[in-house]
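Hey everyone, long-time lurker, first post.

I ran two proteins through the pipeline my lab uses and got sequence/structure pairs for each. Pasting them in order. The first:
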Amino acid sequence: MNKKIKTYYLLTAFTIFMFGFSYMLVPIYEVFCEITGLNGKTGSINSTLVIEKPVERFVRVQFTSNVINSAPFKFSPGKKEMVIQPGKIYTTFYTLTNQSNQPLLATANPSITPGKYAEYFKKIECFCFTHQQINANETKELAVQFIVDKKLPSEATSLVLAYTMFDITKQLGYKLEK
């Protein structure tokens, strides 16, 4: 076989492998994080959780956002930060704008930093629980209702809630109505 053809096949196979690997990287990473406990994923609130009196200390919660793979979204937190009391329920909003001329389906992946405190951050209501259908050039306000557990260690004075927004329209093969 000609060296050029062999090189062509090798490069094509490598490209296909890298595409497949990048597609599977998120699920592989999630399994790795679940096994090692290194994730910063937030917990959802248990329906049996009893809301008690808030503790007499304050924690700063910062809100950040990110959009993956050049998705045609503008995504930002309504507030950059809040000073909260553990044990008390709070609500904040993120704004999502579809900057394309077609409807899209989006999903958000939350993360808490530092990751070792993620188990103390409980979401009661969150746009990340469901996919978000957003029409062409539409803007939506997306709510997050949360509570920080009173058992949050006292050395934790600041948390960051970060959401990464993904366009999943093509991955799920949806044909969305305009």
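...and the second, right after it:
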Amino acid sequence: MATTSKTDKDAEAEAASSALGTEIAALRADLSELAAHVARIAKTRASGLKSVADAKSGNALATGEATLQEIAGELRSLEDELADATRRRPLTAIGLAALAGYLFGILSRR
């Protein structure tokens, strides 16, 4: 009887080991499936973030270009005003240019 019970115990241990191996294989498959699912989610999220970043950079570029055009227009307007003032009062323009040159000379000496 001792032999039978030892054989029964060996059979039970082998069955438990086999069941454990099956469960480990199932867990590995589940883990692999979970990793694939997480990878899909990460890829989807990354592409979503990329599209948001692309849209924001496009908006920033458009805003920057519009601001640059506005500043260029203002500079052209100031240039036109300066040219008109120089045509109306040429002696004043020459005097201001001489004064600016004199002040620049004094400041650059020090």
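Reply from user beta_strand_b:
Welcome! Quick read of the second one: The mean pLDDT is 89. The chain is about 95% helix and 0% strand.
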